Amino acid sequence: MSALPTRMLADVAVPDTPLITKAIDFARNHSIDSTYNHVLRSLLLGFIIADKVLPARDREAHAIAALLHDLGFPIGHPPESTIISKDKRFEIDGAHAAREFLRREGTSEEWDEHRLQLVWDAVALHTIGSIVFEKEPEVQACSYGIWADFQGPDRVKRGLLSWEEYNAVAKASQGI
């Protein structure tokens, strides 16, 4: 995969593609403020950590999975959401919604079944640490950021996230 253009969000270099911009907008339009802020922090913290230990991952798949990982979270949705089902876990609803987003907004040449599955797995498994950290780098990278946002830097293994990095992301992401 070729190198992607990047942009700085809260002093973190993240990929800058039209599809990622659409994913940011999609997350914004399908989340309440607190959930949207969480997915942005998860994206940024995940990039800080994963760039140190998983540099060869698919950065676009990582970014999109992080941005869309809570699409199925019922508390994090506006009341009129059509994403949430009555019979599935929120992670599965979110994984289905992320895959459908990619099928609708991506191209089949760029988003083959393997890449779609990476994003689906990252979203569906993000709450199950005993599985997610045994999966592909993209899936792990997504969860690094999610878990770091909930648990803080002291729980990130090997000191891969400092309090300075964490606090900078928390402060700056409020304005994104």
Structural account:
- This protein has 176 residues and is mainly alpha-helical.
- The chain has a single domain (6-175), classed as Hypothetical protein af1432.
- It is 57% helix and 5% strand.
- The chain has 8 helices and 2 strands; from the N terminus they run E-E-H-H-H-H-H-H-H-H.
- It has helices at 18-29, 33-53, 59-68, 90-105, 113-124, 129-132, 137-151, 163-172, and strands at 6-9, 12-15.
- A two-stranded antiparallel ribbon has the order 1-2.
- Strand 1 and strand 2 form a beta hairpin.
- Helix 1 (18-29) runs parallel beside helix 3 (59-68), helix 3 crosses helix 5 (113-124) and helix 4 runs antiparallel to helix 5.
- The longest helix is centred in the N-terminal third of the chain and has 21 residues, at 33-53.
- The radius of gyration is 15 Å and the shape is globular.
- It holds the Pfam family HD.
- This is HD domain-containing protein.
- InterPro entries: HD/PDEase_dom (IPR003607), HD_domain (IPR006674).
Give me the secondary-structure category: mainly alpha
Shape: globular
- Strand-and-helix sequence, N→C? EEHHHHHHHH
Q: Which second-level CATH architecture applies?
A: Orthogonal Bundle
What Rg is obtained from the alpha carbons, in whole angstroms?
15 Å
Oligomer: single chain
Mean pLDDT: 92
SS elements, strand count = 2
Neighbour order of strands in the largest sheet: 1-2
Helix content: 55-70%
Count of all domains? 1
Compose a concise summary of this entry.
This is HD domain-containing protein. This protein is mainly alpha-helical and 176 residues long.
